[in-house]
Amino acid sequence: MKHYSELIELLRPQINMGPDPVTLHVDNAEEYGVYPNSIHTVKKAILFMVKGDGEDLLIVSNYDSGFAGWIKDGYVVCQLCKRNAATMRRICPFTKPVRVLGKERSFGVGDRLGIASEGHLAIFEKYDAYPVMAQQSIRELDLTNRTYEDVLDCVTWAAFKNDYRKGFGADGDHLKRAQDVKYALDLGYTMITLDCSEHIRNDVEALSDAQVAAQYTPNAQLEALYLGKKFDIGEGVVLEFGKEELMRDVLTYGEAIDFAVDIYNEFFVKGAADADFEMSIDETATPTTPLQHFFVASELIRRGVKPATIAPRFCGEFQKGVDYIGNLEQFDAEMQVHAVIARHFGYKISVHSGSDKFSVFPSVGKQTQGVFHVKTAGTNWLEAMKLVAMVDPSLYREIHAYALTAFHEATAYYHVTTDLNKVPALDTLTDAQLPELFNQNDARQLIHITYGLILNHKNPDGSFAFKDRLYKLWQQHRAEYNDLLMKHIGRHLDLLGVSKN
Ligand code: ZN
């Protein structure tokens, strides 16, 4: 292996004194043990990433570049730690998240494990859509023992290593409390998904008309705004509120709208956050009707909120890790009206739980006229587990057997209709058949919802039963994982009608 100091000497004539990072190309970068796309020069320094002993490292030619590390043979060896990630975002701004919801097509790819970023970046180099790379809910952070810093840092290093300059977003996903919104914004997250579900009343639908009338506080302003009006919002869509509907919508969504307005005022108006705001009303007991969607959007905007996206709950079921369950014709008809409402007000429709919803993607792409945000998350974990089934069948068998015992506990967190009796028994499958489990919905959901328990499961001596072995395997088979992601997320984008560059 050639020495890093030789590479630095070789590159010295090309050194860049300016503040904008310039990418350098070296034909035989691999002979130096250097990641070929990671070689950059900025502010008199040469920086590149190398494969260290068990971990990637950053090599910096200058001592005064701001990176922390130890000096060796005329350069600085830096770990990919929190502090150095923050310095990297300052020195190479393309490694910092930007707002992407204003782009026509944006696509969230949660990477719970911190191993998918490279594969994801390669996908979005190829497709005409912008990724939201860091996208984690507080629940996902808890289950994986990660922080928002970890999640963002992973993407920063991946962007640097691959010289990814197209831009990516970072989403504080499904945040429910002001303190969590503040936490994400302070770290530079560029999108806030406000989860208003705890402020949405799920019981109103079951109330009788008399009960609704008794609970409703007359509101002259709202009645003047909505009652007896025809809202002709174009494209053949005309919406009208009856008194009964208006009362029910106010009872159901009134508090959620107040909550969204408060958060927006605090952080986006007073705090002038440089981030996109999404209101999510998808985690409710019943689907959002187009009329309810219109009411929520109309009220938000009237009260000064500028949402970049709104996530209604669509008809049918969006269960984790499997295709859409429901009536496709009804979905298409309602999606058309949802999309017209969004176009009328000037924000995008956001589709949550978008992992593997292949049968509805053509409708989403068509009705939104190619202007949408789609979020996926768990499917990247499933592809990682499929890789395990492909390359280490005995480890997969161990984990699968454990997941069967943990399944019941995991259902506390997720709404799924998994039938474990339909999951083929492991001892009836040859090693070569194991990856086919990932074509079977019940097996997919079994592995999908038990991810936190699998990762955290401990041996009697306190060591992790699977986690360390899994990460080692994923590290060794990075290229195969990236290929799986390209194919799988690519299939999502193809069906949504996203073209390739
Ligand atoms: Zn959601």
Tell me what you see in this structure.
With 501 residues, the chain is α/β, with parallel strands linked by helices. It folds into 3 domains: 4-94, no CATH class; 101-379 and 491-495, Aldolase class I (TIM Barrel, Alpha-Beta Barrel); 385-478, no CATH class. The protein is built from 18 helices and 16 strands. Strands 7-8-9-10-13-14-15-16 form an 8-stranded parallel barrel, surrounded by 7 helices. A 6-stranded antiparallel beta sheet has the order 1-2-3-4-6-5, covered by helices on one side. Helix 13 runs antiparallel to helix 14. The chain is globular, with a radius of gyration of 25 Å. Zinc ion binds next to loops.
Sum up the structure in keywords.
globular, eight-stranded parallel β-barrel, 501 residues, six-stranded antiparallel sheet, alpha/beta, binds zinc ion, TIM Barrel, 3 domains, 18 helices
Concise account of the structure shown:
The chain is of the alpha/beta class and 501 residues long. 43% of the residues lie in helices and 15% in strands.
Low-pLDDT ranges = none
Number of domains: 3
Gyration radius, to the nearest Å?
25 Å
Which small compounds were modeled alongside the protein? zinc ion
Main sheet strand line-up = 7-8-9-10-13-14-15-16
Beta-strand segment tally: 16
